[in-house]
Each structure stands twice: as structure tokens, then as C-alpha cells.
């Protein structure tokens, strides 16, 4: 059970030596552990009592500014505080969770209008109360399900873990000049006015400072702060056939000094709308494609997040739910070709690129969302599945956590995919064309940018790569590369990892989000023998009847 309340944060007078917010959380958590509700008159069960509860208090300081063609949008952001609570009743062996037959719901309460200890205490009280009542109802329904259904070998619902206390200093939000950033995105987006084809061209800047506190009834605690800054350029338009076309560039960093400078940003804007114009002029796919696909650049890390990390997340199947053919069922067996190995290491803060750059890993965390210190794990070794992501929710294969609780379930931290047979990109392109000939095609497809919408939960043996590919080229036998638009991936299966033919010597880092959590993925180019892509439909809305109004080459003062 979880409850979420939003409170407007006016100030945060917190001392690292004596944290009054954590003291308040501990006091209300202690009260929550005494919750009880009499069983019904006909019930033979004793009154349910909590055996575990926890709470998070997260403070966020967010600033957002964006402009389109040199015209600013209203700035966004501000400070807010969220309170999230959870209660388990029963025992570690059998409790109210991991049951597909019931919607657990949320706690009750109204969001206070200002931040103080009383407001936090009230939100905690209402959250725990709602959690407990939902938990009592859920465990009753779970027991009723077991009375009506035969289930063999019930797995415990919760596992013990070492009590961790990771208390880092509370850090203030880094200072930044909001007016200066508004002026910078305004000027940068105005550079799009030089494009005669772009219908929208946005430059956006977002800075987020977050501090999280966590307390649990078993004594676990953590407190940490982190920063995330995103700079993004997005350009879009409609082609003459009506197909929506877009191009974008994104930079994710931890500190302002890591961002491109003003000249660099202007260059990225020009590069983005230039790519948009190339895509608008490119031919649209006229027929479906069945053949080899080469993923390069940032598309390679996305490929492995979709085909490996995603299917190895959320490993516990809820009672009453069964998905056939999951990748997690193949422990100790080959799940990919033998040249593939993969580890996940959330303890690493940075990664050194082949060019010697020390780049931040957004998948780093000092402690997971169960309050457990993370461990590096080997997922795949020489093609054989060795492990998968684990929280404190047990599975048949692994009874304990490996420190990968992200949100409410186990998932990715920082994924590193490698090969023991690296090849140069030129060789991969040559093999791509050879494989295409075997499929009676004059060309193979090279995908260098994939969307980063990585929120599809595991669904049996089915794998869905993100659609639509944002940058696709046809590669011909004579070496010619032709930009093409309008392809979309069909769903495929886990066997896609066994259809890998070759991998590159060019590892690329991608910092992104998966299942709403910050993750990192490092992977080289990868050539897959056979994938299916469909061409875009033909029933797009018509493009504007009149050309875009003329724009001056600078934004309004």
C-alpha cells in the first residue's frame, strides 16, 4: 500500500546533526506499528497487525524554462515536498502484497498548504491509516483466493535484509541564474528562425534538486541529495505527405558546468533543425521490412535496456498471475549469443569513455528504495543468464535482495554490456549488407537513435523496442547510406538476443529513465540478424495549406 501527498515547501531549516523531519518520521512510524482493527464478528482470524512499515519524505526544488522560435513560455517549477508511506500486515512469509487479484489503492488525506512538522506528521498519519486499512482488506482477499485455488509452494512475500543507515549531509540546491537561462533558451530557440521548414522548435532547460529521507520499522534509514540538469532541443514539422517528423538533442548532467556553452548550444540547435530538414526531404518507407538491423550510437544502449534490462526487471509474479516464457525463467541457460556479457553496477559514479572522458552515471545510487546498499551483479556471462534484479521481494530463484529496489520493484541501475569479439563499425556495416542479401533485400537498416520511452513492463516472452525509430538509414552494398522515415518496430521475442550476429568496439553511454527511475546503459553497436518493421500508415492529417509565416531572424526584445 502506498500513499502520496504533495505539500508546498516554503523553507527547509534542517540541521544535519539533528534532523527534525526524520525525528517526526520515526515518531509517526512508531505509532503506525500499533495500528489495529478488530476482525469481523464471523472472522476466525485475529486482528491484523503491521509487521513492517516505512515512509519517504522527498523535497524537490525544480526550475524549468523553455522557448519556441525565440518566444518564452511561462517558467515552471518551484519547491514541493512529498510524503509516501507503506504498510505490510501478516508476516514476511505471508502478507497483503504480491497478489494480482486486488487493487491495493492509496491512503487518504488532503494536501496541506504549507510545510511544517505538523503538516508532515498529519500526512504521515493519514497515509499510514489508509495503507493499513487497504492492507487488511487485501490480505483477506488473498486468503480467500487461496481457499478457492490450489497453489503449490508459496513463496515468502518479504525477505530480511541487513539494517543500513546511510545518512548523507543535506545539501542546498545549487544556485543558478534563472533569468540568464531564460535568456539563453530564448536566444537559442530563435536560431531556428533560419529554418524555413520547422513548424516548432523548442529549447528547454530543467534543473532539479532532490533530497530524500527514508525510515523503516526495522531500523533502516537513509538520507541523500542529488541534482539533475537537462538541456533539450526539439524540432518538428509535417512532411509533404502529412507524416509528423521530429529531431531532438538532449544533454543530461549533474552540474551546470558540465553543460555545453552558449556557442555549443547554438550549434546543437542548428544541427537539430538541419537534421529535421533532412528527414523531411527523405523518402518514406513504402513497404514493410524484414531483415538485419544495425543499432549504433545511443540506439545500442536503448536496445539492451529494452531487450535485456527490462525483461529482467519486476521478477516476482504476483499470486494469481502467470506470464509464460519470461526471460527470468531461463536462469543458468543461454539467453543470448555467447559473445554477450552484461553486468549491472549501481555503485559506480562515472564511466570513462574510449576518448578518455569521465562521464557521470545517472544509474548510481548509494542506497536503494528498500534501504539496502546496492551490489554489482553479473546478469549475463558468455550468453548465459546468471542473475536478475532483486529487491526484498523474494523469488523462487533468489530469496534475498541484491540492492536493486527502484520504486516499488526491482530494476536497472547502471547496465554495462560488452563483447569478447568486438568489430569495427565498417565491418559491421559490411556484414549488415551481406545479411540483407540473404533476405533478398538491396539494403540493410542502420538505426542510430531510438526513443527513450522505456516504461513497458515485462510481458511474457514478448519484447517491444521503442517506436518510432528517430534516425534510420538504408545501407546499400556500394556503401551509400540513405536517410529514410516512417518505419516502426513490430513486437519481437526474447530470442532477439540470440539473433545477435556481431557487436562493435564503440561503447556508448546513455543516461535516461526506465520505469520512472534514472538509469545508465553502456553498450557497443550491435547487429541483429532479423527484425520486422512496418511502414507508417498513409492516413496522416494534411500539412498546413499555407506556408509558415515569415519570421525575422531574431527573437522579439
Describe this structure in words.
By secondary structure, the chain is of the alpha+beta class. It folds into 3 domains: 3-61 and 76-167, no CATH class; 178-281, 2-Layer Sandwich (PmbA/TldD fold), CATH 3.30.2290.10; 289-535, no CATH class. Helices cover 18% and strands 32% of the residues. The strands form 6 sheets. Strands 1, 2, 3, 4, 5, 6, 7 and 8 form an 8-stranded mixed beta sheet that branches. Strands 9, 18, 19, 21, 22, 23, 25 and 28 form an 8-stranded mixed beta sheet that branches. The longest helix has 32 residues, at 117-148.
Describe this protein with a few key phrases.
alpha+beta, 6 helices, 557 residues, eight-stranded mixed beta sheet, PmbA/TldD fold, 28 strands, single chain
* Poorly predicted tracts of residues: 1-16, 105-111
Radius of gyration: 26 Å
Counted beta strands: 28
Helix content percent band = 10-25%
SS summary, helix count? 6
SSE class: alpha+beta
- The figure for the number of domains is 3
Mean pLDDT: 90
Largest sheet: 8 strands, mixed
Shape: globular
Ends: how far apart?
A: 52 Å
SSE arrangement:
Blueprint (H helix, E strand, L loop, with lengths): L2 E6 L11 H13 L17 E19 L2 E2 L3 E14 L27 H32 L16 E3 L10 H13 L9 E17 L4 E18 L5 E10 L8 H20 L7 E7 L3 H11 L30 E5 L5 E3 L5 E3 L16 E5 L2 E2 L19 E2 L2 E2 L3 E6 L2 E2 L1 H14 L4 E7 L12 E2 L7 E6 L4 E4 L2 E3 L2 E2 L6 E5 L3 E7 L2 E7 L2 E10 L22
Parallel strand pairs: 5-7, 9-19, 17-27, 18-25
Antiparallel strand pairs: 1-4, 2-3, 2-4, 2-6, 6-7, 7-8, 9-28, 10-13, 10-17, 11-12, 13-14, 15-16, 19-21, 20-24, 21-22, 23-28, 25-28, 26-27
Helix pairs in contact: 1-2, 3-4
Amino acid at each position: 500500500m502506498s500513499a502520496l501527498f504533495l505539500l508546498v515547501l516554503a523553507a527547509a531549516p534542517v540541521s544535519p546533526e539533528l534532523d527534525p523531519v526524520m525525528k517526526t518520521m520515526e515518531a509517526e512510524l512508531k505509532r503506525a506499528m500499533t495500528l489495529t482493527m478488530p476482525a469481523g464478528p464471523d472472522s476466525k482470524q485475529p486482528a491484523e497487525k503491521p509487521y513492517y512499515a516505512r515512509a519517504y519524505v522527498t523535497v524537490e526544488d525544480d526550475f524549468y524554462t523553455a522557448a519556441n522560435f525565440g518566444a518564452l513560455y511561462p517558467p515552471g517549477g518551484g519547491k514541493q515536498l512529498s510524503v509516501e508511506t507503506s504498510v505490510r500486515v501478516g508476516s514476511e512469509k505471508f502478507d497483503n502484497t504480491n497478489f494480482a487479484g486486488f487493487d491495493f489503492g492509496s491512503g487518504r488525506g488532503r494536501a496541506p498548504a504549507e510545510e511544517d512538522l505538523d503538516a508532515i506528521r498529519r500526512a504521515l498519519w493519514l497515509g499510514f491509516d489508509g495503507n493499513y486499512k487497504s492492507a487488511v482488506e487485501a490480505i483477506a482477499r488473498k486468503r480467500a483466493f487461496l481457499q478457492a485455488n490450489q497453489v503449490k509452494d508459496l513463496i515468502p512475500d518479504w525477505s530480511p535484509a541487513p539494517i543500513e543507515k546511510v545518512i548523507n549531509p543535506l545539501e542546498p540546491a545549487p544556485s543558478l541564474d534563472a533569468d540568464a537561462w531564460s535568456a539563453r533558451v530564448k536566444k537559442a530557440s530563435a536560431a531556428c528562425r533560419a529554418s524555413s521548414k520547422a513548424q516548432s522548435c523548442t529549447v528547454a532547460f530543467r534543473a532539479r534538486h532532490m533530497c530524500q529521507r527514508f525510515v523503516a520499522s526495522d531500523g533502516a534509514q537513509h538520507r541523500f541529495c542529488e541534482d539533475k540538469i537537462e538541456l533539450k532541443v526539439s524540432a518538428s514539422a509535417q512532411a509533404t505527405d502529412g507524416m509528423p517528423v521530429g529531431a531532438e538533442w538532449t544533454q543530461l548532467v549533474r552540474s551546470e558546468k558540465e553543460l555545453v556553452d552558449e556557442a555549443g548550444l547554438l550549434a546543437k540547435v542548428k544541427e537539430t533543425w538541419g537534421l529535421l530538414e533532412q528527414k523531411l526531404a527523405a523518402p518514406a518507407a513504402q513497404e514493410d521490412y524484414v531483415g538485419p538491423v544495425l543499432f549504433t550510437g545511443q540506439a545500442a544502449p536503448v536496445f539492451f535496456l529494452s531487450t535485456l534490462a527490462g525483461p529482467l526487471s519486476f521478477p516476482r509474479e504476483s499470486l494469481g498471475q502467470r506470464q509464460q516464457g519470461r526471460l527470468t525463467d531461463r536462469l543458468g541457460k543461454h539467453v543470448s549469443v555467447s559473445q554477450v556479457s552484461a553486468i549491472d553496477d549501481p555503485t559506480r559514479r562515472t564511466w570513462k569513455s574510449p576518448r578518455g572522458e569521465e562521464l557521470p552515471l545517472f544509474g548510481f545510487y548509494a542506497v536503494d528504495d528498500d534501504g539496502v546498499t546496492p551490489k554489482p551483479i553479473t546478469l549475463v556471462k558468455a550468453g548465459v543468464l546468471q542473475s536478475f534484479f532483486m529487491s526484498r521481494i523474494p523469488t523462487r530463484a533468489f530469496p534475498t535482495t541484491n540492492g536493486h529496489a527502484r520504486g516499488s520493484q526491482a530494476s536497472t541501475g547502471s547496465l554495462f554490456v560488452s563483447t569478447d569479439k568486438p568489430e569495427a563499425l565498417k565491418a559491421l556495416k559490411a556484414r549488415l549488407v551481406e545479411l540483407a542479401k540473404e533476405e533478398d533485400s538491396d539494403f540493410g537498416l542502420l538505426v542510430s537513435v531510438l526513443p527513450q520511452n522505456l516504461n513497458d513492463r515485462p510481458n511474457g516472452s514478448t519484447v517491444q523496442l521503442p517506436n518510432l525509430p528517430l534516425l534510420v538509414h538504408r545501407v546499400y552494398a556500394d556503401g551509400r547510406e540513405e536517410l529514410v522515415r516512417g518505419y516502426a518496430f513490430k513486437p519481437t521475442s526474447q530470442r532477439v538476443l540470440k539473433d545477435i550476429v556481431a557487436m562493435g568496439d564503440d561503447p556508448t553511454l546513455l543516461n535516461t529513465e526506465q520505469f520512472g527511475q534514472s538509469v545508465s546503459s553502456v553498450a557497443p553497436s550491435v547487429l541483429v540478424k532479423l527484425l520486422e518493421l512496418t511502414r507508417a500508415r498513409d492516413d496522416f492529417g494534411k500539412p498546413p495549406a499555407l506556408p509558415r509565416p515569415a519570421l525575422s531572424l531574431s527573437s522579439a526584445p
